[in-house]
């Protein structure tokens, strides 16, 4: 009997948890889960910020590198050194005509803080030496080494230290023959046609060049590069290069032009006297350096903790319209071919 009573007593002591104990356990569990969720949310937000910052830095560095390189090489015309010495023989009425005589640097000012645009022109690549026979002036052929890599439709220029002529290759065998033909007609666009070329008195031969180029002349490719900001394929603002999306996440592009009112050729110092926007530049030929600012922004919103970010572009404070992260990258680059 004693053993049975002891068993009953032990069982009564193992009757389980009370309701109060269960509620306390649940409350402690909620505190624990809440802490874990808070740590997770904080870690996730930190990751989002770090990831967005890395993307912005990558885009900013790439933009600075490519823009700086193109600005440095702008306005290169071989030994002729200046677009004022260049005769443009392209047909001004043809599709794809580029007015290289407007110089190697140009651009527009965006209204009310809108992104600016930048246009850079000049020659690229190492020069091919001109070979005999030279001329005559009315000839539509310039001789260079074969295997030159040039093709029909390429816009190139021939340059020595006194002048340069821009034209378009019209023959199909420029690479293998070593002959650069620049006939008029509808073979290429924009094509060659310049009755006002000083090498063609009276306009008798519209394919003439301004002079007979000899062994001291070289051939270079031409290029025109334009930069602008527009909406990209991913629904994000992007930097466009020659109308093609180049870098996404670039929201703004602002430019100041360094003007030397006493160019080096006139005995000046080759140092910009002041920096102004495109609409305040009286003569783009006096621009010797370009100062630009690139604003990158994050893809994701809600990264600033609900606090609007403020940033500065060339002394102007700007309040961000949302909670995206933004970074400003600035650089000043000399136009080497004008120094």
Describe this structure in words.
This protein folds into 2 domains: 30-72 and 249-339, no CATH class; 80-225, no CATH class. The protein starts with a helix and ends in a 5-residue tail after the last strand. A hairpin with an 8-residue loop joins strand 2 and strand 3. It has 3 helices and 16 strands. It is α+β, with helices and mostly antiparallel strands and 339 residues long.
Major sheet: size, sense and barrel closure?
Answer: 8 strands, mixed
The domain tally reads 2
End-to-end Cα distance, whole Å, is: 115 Å
Question: What's the helix count?
Answer: 3
Can you tell me the residue ranges where pLDDT is under 50 for at least 5 consecutive residues?
A: none
Can you give me a brief rundown of this structure?
The protein is an alpha+beta fold. It has helices spanning 2-13, 19-72, 174-177; strands spanning 86-88, 105-108, 117-129, 141-143, 155-159, 164-168, 179-181, 218-231, 237-241, 244-248, 250-259, 274-276, 287-297, 310-313, 316-319, 326-334. It is elongated, with a radius of gyration of 34 Å.
Task: Considering the chains and any ligands shown, give keywords for the structure.
eight-stranded mixed sheet, 30% strand, 339 residues, 2 domains
């Amino acid at each position: 009997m004693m053993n049975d009573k002891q068993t009953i007593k032990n069982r009564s002591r193992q009757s389980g948890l009370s309701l109060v104990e269960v509620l306390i356990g649940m409350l402690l569990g909620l505190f624990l889960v809440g802490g874990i969720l808070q740590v997770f949310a904080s870690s996730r937000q930190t990751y989002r910020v770090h990831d967005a910052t890395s993307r912005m830095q990558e885009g900013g560095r790439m933009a600075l590198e490519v823009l700086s390189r193109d600005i440095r090489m702008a306005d290169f015309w071989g030994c002729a050194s200046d677009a004022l010495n260049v005769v443009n023989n392209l047909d001004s009425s043809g599709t794809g005509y580029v007015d290289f005589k407007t110089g190697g640097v140009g651009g527009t000012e965006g209204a009310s803080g809108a992104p600016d645009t930048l246009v850079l022109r000049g020659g690229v690549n190492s020069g091919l030496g001109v070979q005999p026979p030279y001329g005559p002036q009315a000839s539509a052929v310039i001789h260079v080494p074969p295997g030159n890599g040039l093709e029909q439709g390429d816009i190139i220029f021939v340059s020595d230290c006194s002048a340069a002529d821009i034209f378009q290759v019209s023959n199909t065998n420029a690479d293998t023959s070593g002959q650069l033909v620049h006939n008029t007609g509808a073979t290429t666009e924009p094509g060659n046609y310049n009755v006002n070329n000083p090498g063609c008195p009276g306009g008798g031969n519209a394919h003439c060049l301004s002079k007979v180029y000899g062994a001291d002349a070289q051939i270079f490719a031409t290029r025109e590069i334009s930069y602008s900001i527009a909406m990209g394929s991913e629904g994000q603002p992007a930097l466009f290069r020659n109308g093609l999306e180049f870098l996404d996440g670039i929201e703004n592009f602002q430019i100041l032009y360094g003007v030397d009112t006493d160019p080096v050729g006139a005995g000046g110092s080759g140092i910009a006297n002041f920096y102004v926007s495109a609409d305040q530049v009286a003569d783009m030929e006096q621009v010797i350096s370009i100062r630009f600012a690139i604003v990158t922004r994050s893809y994701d919103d809600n990264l600033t903790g609900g606090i609007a970010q403020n940033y500065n572009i060339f002394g102007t404070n700007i309040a961000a319209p949302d909670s995206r992260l933004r970074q400003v990258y600035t650089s000043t680059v000399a136009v080497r071919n004008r120094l």
